[in-house]
């Protein structure tokens, strides 16, 4: 199990001349196809560092990172590059991650040409399908647009479409929807979840907000991080209804405090915070 990506006893220490920060402290975590793990914790708890380790942007200080059961340490450069291409990162800020001078069509065409060798009608067909998959229809309307001509939600849909161009097996979404308005966030969240289910993608979904994790991670698991450690990792519904760790309870309270509690909840003490409808099963 956990064949796609596996972090075994991973630690990351950032060292400078003046101080040493243990960002990640002996974390073990894995992802199989179609599996979603939501990583939740307050700012500075080490979530992004884990995301960066999984995507290969940061090397761990200790522990073993495995792709497809093979240790990254024992891979050739070429194998490592291929393994990392199968892990795509969706950034928080769609403004920063899109080239302002490139149309939507060109943004998607570039990786399709480079990595898949596509051209001509096959290239056009893939661009059209990707735009439809992320809900940007009619696709012909969006292809010639520049990022500044799109809304925040549309931009993030383009970023998601671009991450799918290389046919990844794993997505790392690091606060990917936190810059969007709540109403837009819900629809993008549902679209992303649907795509992941349809394609059996494994997802590491990083968020500070347990209410968002509860929605996206419905039917899967949530891992709670505090000071570099995973203090609780359980089935989403169980963790939210019956948190074991004080810190998880604090996060639940914080989510409620943000006013995201379900208006329809019959058990306000035991049900997570959200004012958005829970996603239908399997979406
Ligand atoms: N490049 C770096 N150099 C030094 N310290 C770092 C570096 N990156 C992160 N840190 C520190 O490591 C700790 C964990 O940071 P990290 O960004 O992983 O947490 P996080 O939970 O994702 O927080 P946030 O939600 O604010 O991004 C923090 O104390 C942070 O200051």
From TrEMBL:
**Where's the ABC transporter domain?**
5-252
Q: Which InterPro entries match?
A: AAA+_ATPase, ABC_transp_ATP-bind, ABC_transporter-like_ATP-bd, ABC_transporter-like_CS, P-loop_NTPase
Q: Which Gene3D superfamilies match?
A: P-loop containing nucleotide triphosphate hydrolases (3.40.50.300)
Cross-referenced SUPFAM superfamilies: P-loop containing nucleoside triphosphate hydrolases
Annotated segments matching region Disordered? 258-283
Which keywords accompany this UniProt record? ATP-binding, Nucleotide-binding, Transport
Output the Gene Ontology terms for molecular function.
ATP binding
* Pfam (any one): ABC_tran
Recorded family membership:
Belongs to the ABC transporter superfamily.
- What is the protein name for this chain? ABC transporter ATP-binding protein
Q: Give the source species.
A: Tenggerimyces flavus
């Amino acid at each position: 199990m956990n064949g796609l990506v596996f972090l075994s006893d991973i630690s990351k220490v950032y060292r400078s001349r003046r101080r040493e920060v243990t960002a990640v402290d002996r974390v073990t975590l894995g992802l199989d196809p179609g599996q979603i793990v939501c990583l939740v914790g307050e700012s500075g708890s080490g979530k992004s560092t884990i995301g960066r380790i999984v995507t290969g942007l940061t090397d761990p200080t200790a522990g073993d990172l495995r792709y497809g059961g093979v240790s990254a340490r024992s891979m050739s450069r070429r194998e490592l590059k291929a393994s990392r291409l199968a892990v795509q990162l969706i950034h928080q800020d769609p403004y920063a991650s899109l080239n302002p001078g490139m149309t939507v069509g060109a943004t998607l065409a570039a990786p399709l040409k480079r990595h898949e060798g596509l051209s001509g009608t096959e290239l056009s067909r893939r661009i059209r399908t990707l735009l439809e998959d992320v809900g940007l229809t009619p696709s012909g309307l969006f292809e010639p647009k520049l990022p500044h001509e799109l809304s925040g939600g549309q931009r993030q849909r383009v970023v998601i479409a671009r991450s799918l161009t290389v046919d990844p097996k794993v997505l790392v979404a690091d606060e990917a929807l936190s810059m969007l308005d709540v109403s837009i966030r819900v629809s993008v969240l549902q679209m992303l979840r649907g795509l992941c289910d349809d394609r059996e993608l494994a997802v590491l979904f990083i968020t500070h907000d347990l209410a968002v994790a509860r929605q996206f991670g419905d039917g899967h698991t949530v891992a709670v991080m505090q000071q570099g450690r995973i203090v609780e990792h359980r089935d989403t519904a169980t963790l939210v209804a019956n948190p074991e760790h004080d810190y998880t309870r604090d996060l639940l309270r914080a989510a409620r405090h943000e006013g995201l509690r379900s208006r329809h909840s019959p058990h306000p003490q035991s049900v997570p915070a959200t004012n958005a409808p829970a996603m239908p099963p399997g979406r």
